[in-house]
Design a protein that fits this description.
The complex is a heterodimer of chains A (288) and B (194). Chain A has 288 residues and is α/β, with parallel strands linked by helices. Chain A contains twelve helices and eight strands. The two termini of chain A are 29 Å apart. Chain B is an all-alpha fold. Chain B folds into two domains: 11-108, Alpha-helical ferredoxin (Fumarate Reductase Iron-sulfur Protein, Chain B, domain 2), CATH 1.10.1060; 113-191, no CATH class. Classes of the chains: A alpha/beta (288), B mainly alpha (194). Chains A and B meet through helix 2, helix 4, helix 7 and helix 8 of A and helix 5, helix 6, helix 7, helix 8 and helix 9 of B.
Chain lengths: 288, 194
């Protein structure tokens, strides 16, 4: 399956391991990634706070570039994905937004008529590639490993994977297909605080504390995530959660693509496991 | 210091146009249908940290308390998780309402939420420069702008991320940055009238 790959800015920096692991599993699962040529930032949550037309235009430029390939867009980042979906929806439903965005794109010699399908990588893995194929690729089952499936907020909402707002199961099923145990995780779609870690750290730390506590309560060995920001907040700031709350969490936070890579028999380095604060490599090896 | 909350509002201090001002995004006008049930506040993972809860913000908009709403740091506590919006029985796109209020506050350079605005402003600056977000520049720029005296506390985290290869020093510009800037300038002009 060939797709237009839209990694997004984080995958070149703080979520580099996400990008590495996606590229590592792409071959085995038969996913051909054609990176959108010269893509730009999606605007994250910041642009919507500044200028609505500008925010839609940023995503529309990416959609216009992707349209040239005729392929569906695949995004591993929940914010990029939500912005693409939101832009597609508003362009389709609101003629005045479509007109303004079209005029702006024209200033850069681009044009977008709509119709590009955007998907989150998790959807492509579970729905398009399919769990049967994934199961067949598992060489090192993650037997006995207890994983908390954390979807984060944006992909579980109406602009997201359209499964369930409170209890999506897509990631749960994937974890099971890899031979691991998906523990019941009540907070699976509750927000991690996102960019609040920068602007109101005490608020984001409490949200992360709750997420970690919930995972610990289920005796999870690790948390699997689908979004760069969730990973950074839960992993990089886990030490700070511990100092703020007097806790002693030591829970690895891995991208689902890293779990896939490990189960497929790839090495820790191939999937960027060494790029986290809370080490996951040893845990995953003993999980075989 | 706790702000004094006026118990009597004078008509001249009210501005009932706020809802109309922010109604450019479809659905926002449904704020008028709010039944004050509090589902939004109950669903919100951060309402406990807001000086005015989402339910209250909706009521304040309808009451015409323009300054109180736009000065509220509550709108900047919203993390855009969309939980309130998907649960609202009146189908009010509350996340979009919050975004629209943030845009107003930024446009009017509201003093009380200056620090909260800093991240958005810095983000825009970085993307204008490179076409992409360069997280290293964003973090450094934001910290120096929002809290220059405690920015040093973030150095250990920055160093760790750098050691893990997660904070590249060099930013790469997209190839057609000129085209993107023309597009952004036009979009800004067209969207600026909101």
């Amino acid at each position: 399956m060939k797709v237009a790959y839209y990694p997004g800015c984080s995958l070149h920096a703080t979520a580099r391991a996400y990008d590495e692991s996606i590229r590592a599993i792409a071959g085995p699962v038969g996913l051909e990634l054609e990176e959108i040529d010269d893509w730009n930032c999606c605007g994250a949550t910041a642009y919507m706070s500044v200028n609505e037309i500008l925010s839609f235009t940023l995503s529309a430029r990416n959609l216009a570039l992707a349209a040239k390939t005729g392929l569906p867009v695949v995004s591993p980042c929940s914010a990029c994905y939500t912005n693409l979906r939101k832009t597609e929806k508003y362009l389709a439903e609101m003629p005045h937004i479509k007109r303004k965005v079209g005029e702006a794109l024209a200033a850069g010699g681009l044009h977008y008529d709509g119709g590009v399908v955007s998907k989150h990588l998790l959807q492509v893995v579970v729905e398009d590639i399919g769990l049967e194929k994934i199961r067949a690729l598992v060489k090192r089952p993650l037997a006995g490993l207890k994983v908390a499936p954390y979807y984060g907020c944006q992909i579980a909402r109406p602009l997201g994977i359209e499964e369930s707002i409170d209890d999506p199961v897509m990631l749960d099923r994937l974890i099971e297909a890899l031979g691991a145990i998906a523990v019941p995780y009540a907070m699976k779609t509750i927000c991690c605080g996102g960019a609040l870690m920068g602007t109101r750290e005490e608020v984001a730390l409490r949200l992360c504390r709750n997420l970690l506590l919930c995972a610990q309560g289920q005796k999870a060995d690790c948390i699997a995530v689908t979004c760069p920001l969730c990973q950074m907040n839960l992993d990089t700031y886990q030490g700070r959660v511990n100092s703020a709350y007097g806790t002693s969490f030591h829970i690895p936070v891995v991208y689902f693509s890293q779990l896939m890579g490990v189960a497929f028999g790839l090495g820790a380095k191939d999937v960027g496991l060494e790029r986290s604060d809370v080490p996951a490599a040893a845990l995953l090896r003993t999980g075989t | 210091m706790k702000r004094l909350q006026p118990t009597v509002l004078y008509e001249k201090s009210l501005d009932l146009d706020l809802l109309e001002e922010i109604s450019h995004v479809p659905g926002i006008e449904r704020v008028k249908r709010c039944i004050q049930c509090g589902t939004c506040t109950g669903s919100c993972p951060v309402s406990w940290a807001m000086e005015d809860t989402p339910r209250k913000i909706l009521a304040l908009i309808r009451a015409g308390m323009r300054d109180r709403v736009l000065d509220s740091t509550a709108i900047w506590t919203c993390a855009s998780c969309y939980y309130c919006a998907v649960r609202c029985p009146q189908d009010i796109p509350i996340t979009e309402v919050m975004y629209a209020l943030k845009r107003r506050a930024i446009r009017e350079s509201r003093e009380r939420s200056k620090n909260a605005q800093a991240l958005s402003r810095e983000f825009v600056k970085v993307v204008h420069k490179y076409g992409r977000n360069h997280e290293t520049s964003l973090m450094a720029g934001f910290l120096l702008r929002a809290r220059p005296f405690s920015a040093f506390k973030e150095i250990p985290i920055g160093m760790r991320l750098m050691k893990q290869g997660r904070l590249p020093l060099m930013a790469r510009r997209i190839r057609d940055i000129d085209g993107l800037r023309r597009i952004m300038a036009k979009a800004e002009e067209l969207g600026g009238k909101e």
